# Entry
Amino acid sequence: MGIVNDLENKVRDYLAGDYEVTETQTIPSVDNVPFGKNAKKMQLCAYCIDLRKSSELLTVHQKQTSGKIHKAFLAVASKVVLENGGEIRSFNGDGLLAFWPAYYKNQITTAVKAAMITKWFLDIRLSPLFERYEKIDFGIGIDWGDVYIVRAGIPRDTNNNDLVFIGKCVNFATAIANQAHEPYHVEISKVTYDNLENRIYGVSNGEKVDMWKDGAVEWKDENHITKITSWYTKLE
# Structure
């Protein structure tokens, strides 16, 4: 009965009373957030990338080939995030979740820049390599806002505890990424668009144009306005 009493006591403790919330402007590591009723709070830009129809890869290709595609896809997504100052906090097999601090417009803009670079790599530069097996489709969703960060799992067991990021922007970015697809691989919330420092306008046929179009995502049984783009950022 030890596990019964242990879990009942933990649940009673976690659900009772208030948590001690500490404001921070630096994305914490696991070691920076203690167990118990403690949480960090900060403004974050949530960035989610998801591989479209990943389950179908297993039925179309051998498991080894599917694994190659997944690994190559995540290698590109990870490298671009890290090269642009983002911090990866979870992988889910066919995608990842990353964060940037979001106290200034340039931080939010950098997350969008990373998305547009990733679009270029996966859809343009490296697409011929993927097409040896199959042309991939993917979606990138971005939103920002207040996030609470708590440490969950089993104490003193490094393989079975991690940080959990709780906030509307995390869920909304994931919902956007789950629906975004070619040619509009990059989709962002309206509040993200409204806080861009640049990467709003481009030049087409010698004229200045808005790179973004109106989009929409269904979330919590409601339609929410988003902004979508087929533009990308090329690296030399």
